[in-house]
Amino acid sequence: MVKFVNDVLMDFRPCFSRKATFDWFCVIIVGFLARTDSLGVTSIIRALLLSADYMGLIGFFRSSAWSLETLSTKWCALVRRYAPIVKCGDAVVIVGDGVKESKEGRRMPGVKRLHQESGNSSKADYIWGHLFGGVGVLAERSGKTFCIPLALMLQDGVKAIFGWDKPEQRKRQGSHVTEMIEMAHNVASHFGKTILLLDRAFLSVPALLKLDECSTGDFIMHIVTKAKSNCTAYHFPPERKVGTRGAPRKKGASVKLFGLFSSVKDEFLSAEVTLYGKSEDIRYYCVDLLWGKKLYKPLRFVLVEYNRAQAVLVSTDLSIDPLDIVQLYGRRFGIEVMFREMKQVTAGFAYRFWSKSMPKLNRFKKKTDPDPVEQIKDKKAQKRIRLAVKAIEGFAFCATVATGLLQLISLQFSGTTELDNLRYLRTYRNSVASEATVADFLRKNISFLLLLHPSLPLTKIISAKQHRHKAPADVGIAA
Asked: Is 403 helix (H, G, I), strand (E, B) or coil?
């Protein structure tokens, strides 16, 4: 198991221009796996009994020796190599969604007022915090499905910061919806033919326009999502007669999609599909229609009835089987589980990066008031704020790799002698261990596992950063 973690981390070496920075990267990832608390980066020092080089550890996240794009590319390649990836036909299945994390930092870049769409009564309607866009790929073994995180980036509250670049170099200026499509397309380019699963918030004209903009050349990414209850589509226009004057019609008669549940109920078909791990009897009806005001893009709509619930699912691929659309959308929930594990197991959002150059957050600022961040003209101040954003996204990426490693370890080693002695569970639901179970095992045994492999580069890196002023028998890996 430790050899596997070592092999994965050593593959990141070409992504760093300095070895010292790469060493800190290895220490941080193992620290994420071994730490038992989430009190910032100091938890890594405590978990691995490192020497008190706090500034060196903090400096990693703002270092110029790495770039997020290069690290993300390498991580996608490693996941493709090691993970048993789920496919629909010959297309890899990836999932995208946004996650909101509450942050109270008054000088933390990217913090803004966010609306909570959750129906959970324990959550406030509005919070101050960060909005991340995340993309993961589905991997499965022995009936256990993981959504392995591939990318996690801030997608709201940072437009003004990235607007400081020259006009021809400006990036990340779109909305959360369009940024998600672009990020998913960049990830999908490493896997080939891809189907992206999204929730109903992403069925919008800007999202489909961005999808068409990205889908150039031979590589095309398709989307499977869900329609809102008030969704209206259009029939294809009738064939134009020869000699007819005027511009050709772009659409036919309008259709209230949820009205079809009653108007064409006799045309529904029955089938048995697997949804959320259970076999369900459903009734469905498939129809291809045009959608989007002034866009009129052909989409495949699948109306589904099961357990007294009704839903309209949508796909941009007109050749995909309707039952595949139903089962694919049922897999979208995997990314919600992934976000939960990143929050509760690896504490991937427990960062506290800020900058004195950042204007103090004004929670009572009106929409008509100028944005204080846009008023910053000093180049040094802009650089410090950009580095704080880099640190936040770098921390999230390290959590992404750590969470992915827990999942890959579970997929690779569940059922072997290495993972036989796991923690007690009253009910074992699957032979493949969860992220929390693997993390608990590593936290209790990481020092012993490293001690068994003293010649590994990973062991040597961690040993070099541990305490040296105390006897080896008292601290460090030798303990």
From this structure: helix
Q: Is the pLDDT of residue 429 over 60?
A: yes
Q: Compute the distance between CA of residue 212 and CA of residue 363 in angstroms, rounded to an integer.
A: 38
Per DSSP (E only), the strands in 187-250 are 194-197, 221-226, 232-234
Q: What is the pLDDT of residue 168?
A: 64
Q: How far apart, in Å, are the Cα atoms of 189 and each of 149, 215, 335? A: 16, 10, 20
Tell which phi-psi region holds residue 295, choosing left (phi > 0), alpha (psi between -120 and 50) or beta.
alpha
pLDDT tens column, 348-382: 999 999 999 999 998 888 888 888 888 899 999 99
Cα torsion angle, 122, 123, 124, 127, sign:
positive
pLDDT band (50, 70, 90) for residue 479: very low
Smallest CA-to-CA distance from 230 within 341, 312, 143, 146 is with: 312
Residue spans per domain, the chain:
1-66+414-479, 227-314
Sign of the torsion angle spanned by Cα atoms 205, 117, 114, 125:
positive
Fill in the amino acid letter for 288: D
The amino acid sitting at 412 is Q
Residues 6+ apart with CB under 8 A from 203: 225, 226, 227, 228, 231, 314
